[in-house]
């Protein structure tokens, strides 16, 4: 497969300082700063690579770019041709965009929802390791995101038929989980009236790291939007907080890996236990 993993997410945010406080005080994530044109962009360092989340100051809270890491320039060309054949206009990234991403090659297109999707070759490793909170490794990387949209079928066609993601499992009537490596899923697609990122997941090293983050969230009065629980499909243990841009951050660990012999199936109810929503769940169903 050409796409190897989820590389980074860029967000337009109205309150960079609130995001920085959440990342540092609750999740133990260090930030750096760089220039993006005339703006200063804040880069969240989840692991040893340059960044995984970029925060751009803005008058609105919206996704800016969704970045996938591609195996090689040859695979990038092959995927570009597949996208072009499917009717997507693919553009080269600017030199300064490649430098910011730490990529050697960068192309992008607009998905059916209107989000900018980037395909990058190369990652810049800038130090030995990210800052860690006391007591454990804390955040170890960027896991996945869930994209909710009224254009569910168009997005499924893009990721499954064009970009060659594999369906891992699903939950009727409109929630699908896709993988681009052995991790259970790197993206999930959901049916919704309004397009949005439902949540972005940060991988943690252990259940103790998740628990310590939970304690820090409570101590810092961070709104816990979904309580601690274990998912039915990928078996991850996690909780969710409401971030300053209004969507969820999932703080989790322990998701399973799957092989080529995995058979996609409807996994039924959403959770083994826990994961009680502070508000209404947009994905609720009678069997959940």
TrEMBL record:
Keyword Oxidoreductase: yes
UniProt cross-references to PROSITE patterns, sorted A to Z: EXTRADIOL_DIOXYGENAS, VOC
Alphabetically ordered keywords of this record: Aromatic hydrocarbons catabolism, Dioxygenase, Iron, Metal-binding, Oxidoreductase
Recorded family membership: Belongs to the extradiol ring-cleavage dioxygenase family.
Name listed for the protein in its UniProt record: VOC family protein
VOC domain mapped to chain residues: 5-122, 141-254
Record carries keyword Metal-binding: yes
Cofactors required: Fe(2+)
Pfam family, one: Glyoxalase
């Amino acid at each position: 497969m050409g796409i190897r993993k989820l590389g980074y997410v860029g967000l337009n945010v109205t309150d960079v300082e609130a995001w920085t406080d959440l990342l540092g005080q609750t999740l133990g994530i260090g930030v750096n700063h760089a220039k993006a044109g005339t703006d200063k962009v804040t880069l969240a360092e989840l692991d040893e690579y340059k960044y995984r989340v970029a925060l751009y100051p803005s008058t609105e809270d919206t996704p800016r770019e969704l970045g996938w890491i591609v195996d090689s320039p040859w695979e990038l060309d092959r995927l570009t041709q597949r996208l072009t054949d499917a009717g997507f206009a693919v553009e080269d990234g600017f030199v300064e965009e490649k430098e910011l991403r730490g990529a050697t090659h960068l192309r992008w297109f607009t998905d059916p929802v209107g989000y900018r999707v980037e395909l990058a070759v190369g990652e810049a490793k800038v130090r030995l390791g990210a800052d860690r909170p006391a007591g454990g490794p804390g955040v170890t990387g960027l896991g996945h995101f869930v994209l909710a949209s009224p254009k569910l079928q168009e997005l499924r066609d893009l990721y499954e038929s064009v970009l060659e993601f594999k369906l891992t499992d699903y939950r009727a009537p409109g929630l699908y989980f896709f993988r681009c490596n052995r991790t259970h899923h790197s993206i999930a697609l959901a049916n919704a009236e309004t397009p949005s990122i439902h949540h972005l997941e940060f991988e943690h090293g252990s259940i103790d790291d998740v628990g310590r983050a939970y304690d820090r969230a409570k101590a810092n009065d961070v709104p816990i939007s979904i309580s601690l629980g274990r998912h039915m499909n990928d078996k991850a243990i996690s909780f969710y907080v409401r971030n300053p841009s209004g969507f969820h951050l999932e703080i989790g660990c322990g998701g399973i890996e799957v092989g080529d012999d995995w058979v996609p199936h409807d996994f039924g109810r959403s959770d083994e236990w826990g994961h009680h929503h502070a508000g209404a769940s947009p994905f609720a169903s009678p069997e959940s």
